[in-house]
Design a protein that fits this description.
single chain, alpha/beta, Arc Repressor Mutant, subunit A, D-Maltodextrin-Binding Protein, domain 2, 3 domains, seven-stranded mixed beta sheet, 46% helix, globular, transcription
């Protein structure tokens, strides 16, 4: 039995789709199909049911999935232990991003890791906290910057800083906003964010206790787009206070304090799966991240 057949089996079971599995493994879709066919013939079992909605594991497939994962993990442990014995950190690490590179200090992180571990390859992959957490669980990401709270039984994370949040408002609306009470804020146009964004959670905490929800002028998740739309008078938005203060230098934006007590902050964290936290590559990356951010793990 070939290990790459087992890896394909596990990946298809997680993705439920041949094309996505092929993209994740960086091989062609026909190769994925051939791997599954060869494994099914060797085992004498159908592992998947091919449906219009994708590849669904059969009862036999589900029964074998945990054992396949265990076998792959055991092989991986051999390689990791060999690295430790050699004192080397080698491989590729995929790190999820949830905001811009400057805020996450990626240049400093890349430089430090290149100096410490020249044979370690980095992949910085954009996304959001809500999108990156499932990728951590499935193995499509090795680690990620995330915001908010996490399930400590599943993830090993370290707080890098507490982010102060505020309302970014167009100067053109300053008179209409006035003292910025909840009712007045709810009457203004707002730039909303996706439900998986921490900004959306802060909006819910502001308005839902008062049975209010503001008009949505548009949806935007990317920080620069949000601030540009606020400056253009499209609406108000919740974002980091630091970014609002920087953008306020244009004279078109100002910061409105959040009408919440206590004023909420959002934890920026660096996280990986708890069961993988001891891997040499992840230990090396986490050490570098903590050094760049000046935190003690």
């Amino acid at each position: 039995m070939e290990l790459y057949h087992l890896k394909t089996f596990v990946t298809v079971a997680e993705e439920r789709h041949l094309t996505r599995a092929a993209e994740r493994l960086c091989v062609s879709q026909p190769a994925i199909s051939a791997h599954i066919k060869a494994l099914e013939e060797e085992l004498g079992l159908a592992l998947f049911e091919r449906t219009p909605k994708g590849m669904l594991p059969t009862a036999a497939g589900e029964a074998l999935l945990a054992r396949a994962r265990h076998a792959l993990a055991a092989v991986g442990d051999v390689g990791l232990h060999a690295q430790e014995l050699r004192g080397e950190v080698i491989g590729t690490v995929r790190i999820g991003l949830n905001t811009d590179a400057g805020f996450l200090r990626l240049v400093e992180l890349q430089s430090l890791l290149k100096t410490r571990h020249p044979r370690l390859e980095l992949e910085f992959l954009g996304g959001t906290t809500g999108a990156n957490l499932p990728k951590l669980k499935s193995g499509r990401l090795d680690a990620s910057f995330v915001s908010g709270t996490l399930d400590d039984s599943l993830f090993d994370s370290q707080v890098l800083r507490e982010e102060d949040m505020a309302i970014a408002a167009p100067v053109a609306l300053r008179e209409a906003i006035g003292a910025a009470d909840i009712a007045t804020l709810a009457r203004q146009p707002w730039i909303h964010s996706s439900p998986d964004r921490v900004q959306h959670s802060v909006m819910q905490a502001m308005f839902e206790p008062h049975a209010l929800w503001p008009e949505r002028s548009m949806l935007a998740n990317q920080k620069d787009a949000v601030l540009a739309m606020v400056a253009a008078g499209v609406g108000l938005a919740i974002t980091r206070l630091q970014d609002i203060e920087r953008a306020a230098q244009t004279g078109k934006i100002y910061a409105v304090p959040l009408p919440l007590e206590p004023t909420p902050t959002v934890s920026l964290r660096f996280a990986c799966l708890r069961q993988r936290a001891g891997e040499p590559v992840l230990r090396a990356v986490r050490s570098a991240v903590f050094a760049v951010w000046g935190v003690l793990a």
